[in-house]
Amino acid sequence: MSILYIILSVLFILVCGGLVVCILLQKKSSQGLGSIAGMGNSADTYWDRNRNRSLEGTLEKYTKIGGVVLFIFSLAMCVVK
């Protein structure tokens, strides 16, 4: 087993743990699948416009970034092995 594979494995585990924490800290969305079909309340409120500045918006951003990083690490581990 190469040193690079071990380093990637440790980083992969750390990213997985961080992603789990980010997901668990988020609040549950009450709209569910109705928001996809456009059946939810689509009012443009002050909270909706400034959501990215809140803790929820930050956690959503980190979750997306973590998912991309996790995907890249998994591809890199497949190539290295």
Tell me what the structure shows:
The protein is mainly alpha-helical. The protein has one domain. Helices cover 65% and strands 0% of the residues. It has three helices and no strands. α1 runs antiparallel to α3 (55-80). The model has no long low-confidence stretch (mean pLDDT 82).
Q: Topology of this protein?
A:
Elements: H1 3-25, H2 46-49, H3 55-80
Helix pairs in contact: 1-3
Structural descriptors:
mainly alpha, 81 residues, 65% helix
Number of spatially distinct domains = 1
Helix/strand order, N-terminal first:
HHH
Structural class estimated from helices and strands:
mainly alpha
Percentage of residues in strands: under 5%
Report the C-alpha radius of gyration, rounded: 17 Å
Query: What overall geometry do the principal axes of the alpha carbons give?
Result: elongated
Parts with pLDDT < 50 across at least 5 consecutive residues: none
Distinct helical segment count: 3
Q: Give the % helix.
A: 55-70%
Summarize the structure.
The protein is mostly helical.
